[in-house]
């Protein structure tokens, strides 16, 4: 039998969405591997139930003696629809509960708070010297277990970094806990997995898994105020303060201490802007500032399409210096 072309296209299209950055089959985290270990028995269990019921039904009906339809029907319902699924589902339930317990009981070396907001992520690292604020990018040390404290400041969101581990709802007024133990370095994709409003589909983030020493150095750098070279850019900084950016954004070491939007103190050290949407670059920053609402419909940050080119140059240079 030839499969229609549109089914092939749908299959290929579906698989194309499974790039390694967003795939739980990437095996980048110990928790993701636990889920993978759970997935195969579940898949095999489901296929076993389906196959057994189908085979039994076909064979039994073909070989049925005259007048025995009702008896065979009862047997199929009892064994295929009752006993067999009960046994398989009970086994899968026990496996699932054991996996949940294994994921919840890991002792953690680091605590990171992630607050979801429409439509970005506030990230706060707990360190012995105090809290370190960041946004839209979560850095984790390789081989260490990090406890994520997940909550929301507005509506229900859901935290999901598929390559590293499971997904968990982020609910206003409640803190949900999840652990992640990365086993591969790299940049992994994350996204909001609960519809949360206009820009839900553009609410993304990156998880950067680093060697523990590099992570420690990065965390110290992230806790510092903005780079002195950026603070010396007087024109760019004063435009940032005067154009209204500072009302929503914080740049530590300046008078900008807005809390409505992401902390930008070390923006230029991040891989992406707009909550995971665009790669960080001079051109993309300009596009973001002038066409914010086109790039991310529904976003709370206004566009500045009429900003004079020289001012745009100065603000972009200032932001790109925030390393
Ligand atoms: Cu936040 Cu969907």
TrEMBL record:
Domain Cytochrome c span(s) in chain numbering: 231-323
Entry protein name: Cytochrome aa3 subunit 2
Annotated InterPro entries: CcO_II (IPR045187), CcO_II-like_C (IPR002429), Copper_CuA (IPR001505), Cupredoxin (IPR008972), Cyt_c-like_dom (IPR009056), Cyt_c-like_dom_sf (IPR036909), Cyt_c_oxidase_su2 (IPR014222)
Location in the cell: Membrane
Native species: Albidovulum marisflavi
Catalytic activity, reaction form: 4 Fe(II)-[cytochrome c] + O2 + 8 H(+)(in) = 4 Fe(III)-[cytochrome c] + 2 H2O + 4 H(+)(out)
Xref: PROSITE patterns: COX2 (PS00078), COX2_CUA (PS50857), CYTC (PS51007), PROKAR_LIPOPROTEIN (PS51257)
Membrane topology of this protein: Multi-pass membrane protein
Keyword vocabulary terms for this entry: Copper, Electron transport, Heme, Iron, Membrane, Metal-binding, Respiratory chain, Transmembrane, Transmembrane helix, Transport
Ranges of residues in domain Cytochrome oxidase subunit II copper A binding: 107-221
Membrane-spanning intervals of the chain: 38-61, 73-98
Family: Belongs to the cytochrome c oxidase subunit 2 family.
Function noted in UniProt: Subunits I and II form the functional core of the enzyme complex. Electrons originating in cytochrome c are transferred via heme a and Cu(A) to the binuclear center formed by heme a3 and Cu(B).
Pfam families xrefs: COX2 (PF00116), Cytochrom_C (PF00034)
Main localization category: membrane
